[in-house]
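Re-run with default settings, no changes from the original entry. Doing this only to confirm the output is reproducible before filing.
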Amino acid sequence: MASTSSTKLGDERPRAVGRPVPIRASAMQAAAEGAPSALRHKAERSSDDRDENGATFPIDVAIADKSPLILAGLEALLADDRRFNLVLKVTDGEEFLDAAKLQRFQIAIIGWQLPTLHAREVLRALSRQPSAPKIVVYSGTNDPAAPAETLQLGGAGFVSKRAPPERLLDVLASVAAGDMVFPFVDIRKMRADPLENLTLRERSLLSALGSGHTNNQLAKDFGVSINTIKFHLRNLFEKLEVRNRAQAIALFLEMKHGSWTAATPGGRAESAGARGKKASRD
């Protein structure tokens, strides 16, 4: 795996000039005694505040994004809001998943196109993990299906990078309170082409399954071990949302003969064959 950088943020607090003594909450309150009432109110807030929706603050947050600039911007944004406590920064999906297994945080902000492991794979993996953090996808992708896919895969929210930064903070607070926050999603479009997210290898494997090849034959044809074939088959079944080889072959045959249907923007059922003819005309 390519080397990546990560930064884990501990409980770093401002220190006084001179002797390194942490500033305690009581000191902050004393310093604010002569300040305006709004400042005194902020200093006197406990570390276990609740908002009107019942969320308990501060919320431990992790962020994962391929861009160092985005990571720095999110760190600064969260540092200015006492509702959130940034505990982890990573630059790729694989490293984020490893951290999610070891470190507890309630919410994570992740990019859509993460290196080494796409956000789709991250969400799939977290769906099998007990007490997984809630995921908010923060992305500038032009893929109109990304919010719907995030919702389908168990994400808690989706925010465009084109939105004001305050929008992301509002979504994080709502998700912390138990809400799911997404832009408008047409649920009639949510049954996408099941082959869309397959790799070229997985498509070839599915085609070979449809031809009745055994695992031994597949291993010989692809030049890999049987264990590798089993690994790819598990991933294939998961992406197709089927339980076994027979269901995968049945779906493949439906696609091949054009009897599988998906919802179109107008809500009409459209067969795979009809979509292929339409695509050839466009």
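The chain has twelve helices and ten strands. The radius of gyration is 24 Å.
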